[in-house]
Input
Amino acid sequence: MSSPIVTSPVVVVTGANGFVGSHVVSALSERGATVRAVVRRVGTAPQHPGVEEHVGDFADPAFAATVVAGADALVTTVHPLGSRRDDQRRVGLDGTMAIAEAAVDAGVPLLVHVSTAGVYDRSPGMGDVDESSPLVPDDASAYGVVKRDVDAALERLGGATRVLLRPPAILGAGDTSIWNSIRPAEIRDDEAQRHGNPDQAFAWVHVTDLADLAADLATGAIATADDPEAGPVAGGCTPVNVAGGPAAYRDYLGAVTEALGLEPVWEEGPAWTGRIVSDRAQRWGWTPRIGLADALEELRQGLRG
Output
């Protein structure tokens, strides 16, 4: 083992006012870190002890070099969901790599990137998915392909310890939460969105549990190791799945439609029924605190409110 816990690290967070980024900033503040919260608009960074707002475009090399100077870790959380493939590549890939390269040039020792379990091929019949599982092919969705390519670019980067966090559907309250706000609005407004295979796997994690792992990594609470099953490989690039307990789509769609006073339409057909295996994260010491029942009750309460 190496990398002892840093007492008061300086951590840069991109997308600090976003759904995931704001929770990462909060978790870092709770751990006593100094957080450089990177946002695009003045006055939008989370207000917590130790948080400094840095306004600018993290894809701009000059701004990126300034904001990462002297930092102990960089956490990247930005990806433009729902955008065209070109926009996803420009922001998610090119932008992430611009600040990652600036961090490596500045000698920042640790990069934590919020990727996605969407990089894995979860076609029907694929079974359980761990960090060695096949990735999506080039003809998959733009989101999965671009995120896959960001991971590959970070793996090639070198010069720092890099960790790729791969969460599936991220539950948690928030106006920009895909699964607690945006998808339920689509289900409410469009009858076609109420159709689903009840047995299809619904891999998920709560945003606070994801943020806890990102913050523990960024503050050095999880030490590097020679074996990826024991910790992030020092100087290497280590993917790690971050998922809660097993669930099926009947659990999620059933909770949403119940809260909205609607009826789901269950359909049979081929579907992925495996799970995202997060044993590696748990061997690193991560334990999710929020179970499926609590996450779905939070979802119901938010929709009813």
